[in-house]
Amino acid sequence: MIEDVLNFRVHHVFDTSFSRTFSLLESQREFVKRFKRKEQDSKTLPMLTSACPGWICYAEKTHGEMILPYISTTRSPQQMMGSLVKGHFAEQQGLSPQQIYHVAVMPCFDKKLEASRSDFYLNEAETREVDCVITSGEVQKMLEEKNVSLKDVEPAPLDTMFSSVSEDEFLSHSGSGSGGYLHHVFTYAAKQLFGEEVKELTYKTLRNKDFQEVTLEKDGVVQLSFAFTYGFRNIQNLVQKLKRGKSPYHFVEVMACPSGCINGGGQVKPLPGQNPKELLQKVEDLYKEERTLSPEEDTRVAELYQSWLHSVGEERAKELLHTHYHAVEKMINGLTMKW
């Protein structure tokens, strides 16, 4: 196994697709709750996704209390896995949280900042839910430094503690390469709120390929209006519309990187002479080749909701699956003050 080659001394390897299922399920339920109370609270919609730490940092530092009520409280897959590993898994292994060193491999450098947030620190155990984050590009660098090629590494079975599939198969979700939030929340909401079974989503490109929308219409009336917006230029346009009260959307999948997570800053870089766009397309095609499973069909996740989350009580379960955001006060520059 690769951890043996690099002397990582890793005992278990889990697929984050499993924890993403929790994120998708919670996002679906959160949206439906928000939609039902939209008449009572003008800041429940649009619901903006929260899985991208670059976007969250920007929102907290730049727009603060104006934007935070719109952001989904559902944890990202990385921090969902933090709850699972330092909570349920630790209990199953008879270990305390601080006896586990949890490393996450992510496509984004900002995931390191996310792991360091005080919201994800276990005070009683004096440990973080995610102890260390390394990017996929950093993993590649480690391999190169050891002169290791993945083609020469003996394959080993996946760990199945948090897996809903066989040990020789990876799991994916329908929708974008950024987690599929728009896809799953849209299809779930269409069914739960309007009784509509949506088999395939039709996207309409707006300003550019990183800003697209999809709608649900019934008798000529738009019932649901969703969009995904990637890259800070598109995000800024979205925020300006929110400030003016002119956003037409109920839900927006927001990612800081153009093209989303598959183009994250921590991803493996193109080889010399390789076209970056071709690499990006190849990664996206490979991602879509994996077998998909809808969150509702994941029986192992359903079992954990019953055996783990129901046993800790509603309030504690909410803490394990959701989080909070904090407006960051802007520093005052003494040179620009009028004394």
TrEMBL record:
Gene3D superfamilies: 3.40.50.1780, Fe-only Hydrogenase (Larger Subunit), Chain L, domain 3. It comes from Notothenia coriiceps. Belongs to the NARF family. InterPro entries: Cytosolic_Fe-S_CAF (IPR050340), Fe_hydrogenase (IPR009016), Fe_hydrogenase_lsu_C (IPR004108), Fe_hydrogenase_ssu (IPR003149). This is Cytosolic Fe-S cluster assembly factor narfl. Transmembrane segments: none annotated. Residues 273-329 form the Iron hydrogenase small subunit domain. Pfam families: Fe_hyd_lg_C, Fe_hyd_SSU.
